[in-house]
Design a protein that fits this description.
heterodimer, A: 660 residues, alpha+beta, 6-stranded antiparallel beta sheet, 17 helices, 63% helix, 12% strand, B: 175 residues, alpha/beta, Glutaredoxin, 5-stranded mixed beta sheet, two-stranded antiparallel sheet, elongated
Chain lengths: 660, 175
């Protein structure tokens, strides 16, 4: 019954989306008709219905209803409760339902609160939103129905992929989806603005919170995903340029560019066509990412989600949405009047450099990700990795960071570099100073060296916009920018430090033996079997002491799951303020004099944690900027309402006076 | 309308074309070895089971072609191919095993349960030999001629229909 309720709600929501599509595009011509009046309520109810369907799916997973195919194939009665719930979206069908639920709720929210734009544009925007939604409804209902029943209820479920039974992973996909969906809203706004030729600062302001929100979620998603790969996959790396990681990085790059160009459009009414283009690109990157991950067209760590048939479906959706939007763009872009002009040395100029560089990096990542696809068409197998991505993207990252240090200090429209001579000189001094010190004391590669130098300079430069301003009255959005830029410097420092100073040790040790890595000495105390709810493991007990200090106990495990059968490594981490010791226990490596010896792999990674602290700071910056914009909007709304009230009062008074 | 507004669409169409073409192509997950025709790399593996000796590359240079079977006790398709390997052995083929990342007690358990068609079994704890001969998965079966050259690679489990083929390859290697 529960499954049928969910399915019914989903069908109703799809029907409402169809209504919203037709009524929205009619309303874009004439927003005063009765049809047009249906659009906003349809969007709201559709959101509620989807939420209801998703709650039904959660319920099915919570009670492990094994007559439902999705539950039987992805859950197991012996699974811990939190992973039963996360199993609801840890699979293709459930995650698609989550996607459409978030999207429908977002559509409902815009329909309920967004009143700044001309009603025509809003109707077109909601119509576009319904158009995107309909594709996903079709996908769910025709080819990936999450509520499908089994003819015979299963006796026991198959279990969830053990790699996914991790608390970080329970939240990783929803986080990315919030990001993707935010970009789909930005896309709808862009299409709506393009259809009604209303590419105005108001449009940028209405779109900006969605881009900011999406960007915050993408930042968190990438940060969490990177940390998951770092400790769960047991390779000691934090970024592998895997297609699926790139799939989350590309929308982030596009969203970052969009965020900055939308700021220019909102503040200065410039970069109109460019902002629209980025709106389309950002959403297409999230679709391309989904396609690459789900179709299995590229081999990646997300191989568990693969199905070529779904791939074809997503590709068709991609062709319709993005192809359609690009045709619309090509035919309409000329008619969007050129925006305001600005000088090269200006805030806009710096932001244009930022945009161009971000897009170039996006291009580099996209090319690297798709290149194997292209060569395979000619029967050549290649895999593109760090030797390509790192140096080639650095070509664009370095100038971008340099401009980023100065850009926020410049004035809008026109400025002179002489005016900001002092701060620029300070930043240059830090750059050269750090470079000199590093060249003397260490012998690292070029890229880590550049990273450390730029991180130091950027960390200082990111606070320079606060110079000479009243900190109490500084808008939240400026704080957001400062913190996000600083976070980037912190993350960059972590990355550079990790690759410059990491030390690795692979040893075969018996109980009682000691292995040394960097300042750590690690004693293997023993290896014992342990059992969890649905796995057994060999657990190594390590006593690690830093620089002769008190030993910390570490328990890395080699886990064996039995439903489904799979081995995973659970690394153990000792975190200090200045880095992490990373320990993985492997197989038995034969017998030694003191009994069995075990493979032990140790890494000392100085300041590696700064990568994720930085990521969190960037996200925090985004949250502050978002809150700042929202408060501003609310304030403006209140002022407007008060003005309208006063005018009404005055009119009433005048009318009364006239009568008297 | 200016022509360059169409550039994004053209690029996107290119991507669509390649992606659609690739989707329709059968996905070939088999990675053929680039070592076919090459001599075996040097190796010397400790015995993986108590009752069979270990394995070194020198053993293959005795003039008789052999089958080299990459397997592991943790590998499910290896269970499926065990009876076929036994048939090969009964037809006169000599099969040597390379156990990948395995433990002695597991190897012993596997052989006790599913039979032991091997004359020798080497333990390849780090997949050195496996990677050295260009095998990317388990199980795989190689035909090695009497001079220790890699002649033929069979990827995946050996099924009944592959038995005559492998025997034929062994005979060819003899000539």
């Amino acid at each position: 019954m529960i499954a049928e309720l969910g399915l019914a709600a989903l069908w109703l929501a799809a029907a409402l989306a169809a209504l919203q599509l037709v009524a929205g595009f009619l309303g874009a011509r004439n927003p005063d008709t009765e049809m047009a009046a249906l659009v906003r309520p349809a969007a709201v109810v559709q959101g509620l219905l989807c939420a209801f369907a998703f709650v039904m799916l959660l319920w099915l997973f919570a009670v492990t209803d094994l007559s439902v195919k999705l539950v039987a194939t992805n859950s197991h009665s012996a699974k811990p409760p939190i992973f039963k719930l996360s199993g609801a979206w840890g699979n293709h069908e459930g995650s698609m339902l989550l996607w459409i639920t978030v999207m429908a709720l977002a559509g409902g929210l815009i329909a309920a609160v967004e009143r700044r734009l001309p009603e025509k544009t809003m109707q077109a925007t909601l119509g576009a939103q319904a158009f995107v939604g309909l594709g996903f409804y079709a996908f769910l209902l025709f080819s990936s129905n999450p509520f499908e029943r089994l003819p015979q209820p299963a006796v026991e479920g198959l279990g969830l992929n053990p790699l996914l039974q991790d608390i970080g992973l329970a939240f990783h996909p929803p986080t990315l989806y919030f990001g993707y969906v935010g970009l789909s809203v930005a896309f709808s706004f862009a299409v709506g603005a393009l259809l009604t030729r209303q590419v105005t600062p108001e449009f940028a302001r209405a779109m900006r919170p969605w881009v900011l929100g999406a960007w915050v979620f993408l930042t968190l998603g990438i940060t969490a995903g990177s940390y998951w790969a770092y400790y769960e996959l047991g390779w000691g790396g934090w970024w592998f340029w895997d297609p699926v990681e790139n799939a989350s990085l590309m929308p982030w790059l596009a969203a970052t560019a969009l965020l900055h160009s939308a700021s220019v459009l909102a503040a200065r009414d410039a970069l109109r066509a460019w902002t629209i283009m980025l709106g389309v690109v950002a959403f297409s990157m999230s679709m391309v990412g989904t396609f690459l991950v789900r179709s299995g067209i590229l081999t990646s760590v997300h191989a568990f989600a693969v199905d070529p048939e779904r791939g074809s479906f997503i590709l068709v959706l991609l062709a319709i949405y993005i192809g359609g939007a690009l045709v619309l763009f090509a035919t309409r872009a000329s008619s969007i009047a050129e925006g305001e002009r600005f000088a090269a040395t200006s805030r806009e100029g710096a932001l244009v450099v930022n945009n161009v560089m971000l897009c170039a990096i996006l291009g580099v990542v996209l090319m690297g990700t798709l290149y194997p696809l292209l060569t395979e068409a000619f029967d050549v197998r290649v895999s593109v990795g760090p030797p390509y991505f790192n140096p080639v993207s650095a070509i664009f990252v370095v100038p971008m960071l340099l401009v980023m240090m100065v850009g926020p200090l410049l004035r809008w429209r026109r400025d002179r570099l002489e005016r900001v001579k002092a701060p620029v000189a300070l930043v240059a001094a830090i750059l050269l100073g750090t470079l000199a010190v590093l060249l003397i004391v260490s012998t690292t590669g070029l890229l880590p060296l550049l990273g450390l130098v730029l991180a130091a300079a950027l960390a200082v430069a990111s606070f320079l916009p606060l110079r000479g301003r009243n900190l109490r009255r500084l808008p939240l959005a400026v704080w957001g920018m400062v913190i996000a830029h600083f976070g980037l410097a912190v993350a960059l420092f972590g990355m550079a430090s990790e690759s410059a100073f990491s030390q690795e040790k692979l040893a075969a040790v018996a109980a009682g033996d000691t292995a040394e890595v960097g300042p750590w000495s690690v004693v293997l105390d023993g290896v014992h079997p342990v059992a969890g709810p649905n796995w057994t493991a060999l657990e190594g007990q390590l006593l690690a002491s830093y620089d002769g200090g008190d030993p910390i106990e570490l328990d890395p495990q080699a886990r064996s799951f039995w439903a489904p059968v799979q081995q995973t490594t659970e690394s153990a981490l000792a975190t200090r303020w200045n880095g992490q010791l990373y320990a993985v226990i492997g197989n038995e490596a034969g017998a030694g004099e003191n009994g069995a010896r075990w493979q032990l792999r140790l890494w000392w990674k100085p300041f590696v944690t700064f990568i994720w602290y930085g990521g969190l700071l960037v996200a925090l910056g985004g949250v502050l900027a978002l809150l700042g914009r929202l408060f501003d909007d609310l304030k403006r709304r209140r002022v407007k309402a008060r003005l309208a009230e006063r005018r009404a009062d005055e009119a009433e008074l005048a009318a009364a006076g006239g009568r008297g | 309308m200016r022509w360059w507004w169409w550039i994004p669409l053209a690029l996107f169409a290119l991507f669509l074309g390649v992606a659609a073409y690739q989707l329709t192509q059968p996905k070939d997950e088999f990675i053929p070895s680039t070592m076919i025709g090459e001599p075996l790399p040097e190796f010397d593996l400790r015995p993986a089971a108590a009752d069979r000796p270990g394995l070194s590359d020198a053993y293959f240079r005795d003039g008789t072609p052999k089958l080299l079977n990459i397997w592991a006790s943790w590998c499910v398709p290896c269970i499926a191919e065990a009876p076929q390997l036994e048939r090969l052995r009964q037809s006169g083929a000599e099969i040597v095993g390379v156990a990948i990342r395995d433990r002695p007690q597991d190897v012993a358990g596997f052989l006790a349960r599913y039979g032991n068609p091997y004359s020798r079994i080497g333990a390849d704890d780090l997949s050195e030999v496996q990677l050295g001969i260009g095998s990317s998965g388990v199980p795989e079966t190689f035909v090695i001629d009497g001079q220790g050259r890699i002649i033929y690679q069979h990827i995946g489990d050996v099924r009944a229909e592959h038995v005559p083929l492998l025997l034929e390859k062994l005979r060819e290697a003899q000539d």
